[in-house]
């Protein structure tokens, strides 16, 4: 995947809906492309996280390990496909954090990794862009919290 493909993928994902061309260009400059085989993890619960991930191609289960007395296992919080976004706390808070879930690839997947620290730097330097991203990250958090509550209802 080349830089124009990164820009196209970023622009087409719901997370960055209505982003300006200038900010899209800025963000695409500090993105990496990661490839994962089916069964591999993008990240694991308990690891330290500091990046955002956008699925360019593939299918990923966001899951959380559970230990409720005699009930142990994992619950799928959400099933994410092309254009969906993972991660965000470190970008909001400006520090790595312990990840509260795992991202398990259900099929071969291509993921764009946005460096959270560089995104945060851009947010701090450009207040309108910072507000735009803060709003987008808040919607992402709301979506994830709703999915987690839905997953708990299934336990």
Automatic annotation (TrEMBL):
Stored SUPFAM superfamilies: cAMP-binding domain-like
PROSITE patterns, per the entry: CNMP_BINDING_3
Highest taxon of the lineage: Bacteria
Pfam families: cNMP_binding
CDD domains linked to this entry: CAP_ED
Domain Cyclic nucleotide-binding: 15-96
Name under which the protein is recorded: Cyclic nucleotide-binding domain-containing protein
Source organism: Desulfosarcina ovata subsp. ovata
